């Protein structure tokens, strides 16, 4: 009796695993569009990814700006970092409110990549810090802009479109200011 119980549990587990895998495969059927196969995407999944990705990037940028305000040797970098931080905190607050209304949970998902970037910035000497910080913040702002632009094309949700049209111009403005300082340092 005792040896049949584990084999029965194994059989049940394998059956459940098989049913689960086959049901997951049914949800991701490729659709042929212009002789290319693409996955059919659920708009709710796209929106959830957008909120999580923007929140993660925003939190990363806020952490970098905190560091820059304490470690940077140039006043212009401290000033633009304060502007970036204030805007990103406002954006994060809005993203969190909208995500909560849409029942999307924003979690710390990709913190290891963010932490590596922060550790790299922390370990830089003052001379090298400004250049590395500006490169990093420029990349992060560019990523948020790409996310905003792609989401504007993907969704018809008026709340998200309003968020994008409100914040996208400011993201571009902050990116231009950062790149101007970056050119001045080089």
Short structural summary:
Helix content is 81%, strand content 4%. The chain has six helices and two strands.
Q: Count up the helices.
A: 6
CATH superfamily: Ferritin, core subunit, four-helix bundle
Query: Which structural class fits the helix and strand makeup?
Result: mainly alpha
Overall pLDDT level: 80
For the largest sheet, list the strands in their spatial order. 1-2
> Biggest β-sheet: count, sense, barrel?
2 strands, antiparallel
How many structural domains can be distinguished in the coordinates? 1
CATH class designation: Mainly Alpha
Order of helices and strands: HEEHHHHH
- Terminal CA distance reads 77 Å
| Strand elements, count | 2
CATH architecture, by name, is Up-down Bundle
- Could you tell me the CATH topology label: Ferritin
Radius of gyration: 22 Å
Description:
The structure is a single chain. 81% of the residues lie in helices and 4% in strands. The protein is mainly alpha-helical. The protein has one domain (43-184): Ferritin (Up-down Bundle). Helix 2 packs antiparallel against helix 3, helix 2 (43-71) packs parallel to helix 4 and helix 5 (126-154) packs antiparallel against helix 6 (158-185). The protein is extended. Residues 26-40 have low confidence and may be disordered.
